[in-house]
Amino acid sequence: MRATATLIGALAALCPLAGFAQPAAGPPPAGAKYVAMGSSFGAGPGITTPADDPPTRCARSRDNYAHQLARRHGLKLTDVTCSGATTAHILGPWNELNAQLDAVDADTRLVTVTIGGNDVGFTAGLFAAACRTGGAAATCPPSPPPPAGQAWTDLETRLGQIAAEVHRRAPAARLVFVDYVTVLPADGTCPALSLTDAQAAASRAINRHVADITAKVARASGSGLVSASAITAPHDACAADPWANGASPPKGGAAFHPRLQAHTAIAEALDRQIWR
Question: Domain 29-275 adopts which CATH fold?
């Protein structure tokens, strides 16, 4: 891990993000290697059926946006997304798992990344807050501390390191960041969330800041961006047609996570950006 961090630090120093440019090559052809990296918002826990047999703790779905996109274009997918992952788990190993970046090599032609929420306690904070509001405080998980300035600086730095390393390992690959879907309404709360107005406002601010930093790094690194937060904004967990779960998801689903409709919309947005 120390060696990996040293290498990435050296690369960041030698290759400022502003110096990267998106490859001019056309869309990946059928059979091209596609690597999907990220956290549970990329993995798709609880959506249709598991992608791995036997299922793993990463809880990847065969119908997350990466699998849908790969099927649509006949790509050879390596899906290393994993529920609970942070940027550290893309850059370095996580217990028995290799660094997600290890899946990226010179043959890779497409890389998508959905990461950052767990670095600043987004979903953990939602779980803890909803649990306490629901009246089960004695058995609730601890609330993560509100992310401070250094946490946001570190997140931006590590996202930049991920971009730099993808460009170094796979210079012919397209890199597209996909931010987090919108779970909370633009204002207020609703019974489906089991959150107070203050709790919802705090979590909403965290997700917006993650989206802003993701967009900033995508621009600076010459990478693509799919704003899942904007695409899914009309379909938050309080909407008439929700594409995200609230505190009590349907059987098999994950609380405060995107539903199948959200992953399908992201796959369609990637299709439009890359192939059309």
Answer: Rossmann fold (3.40.50)
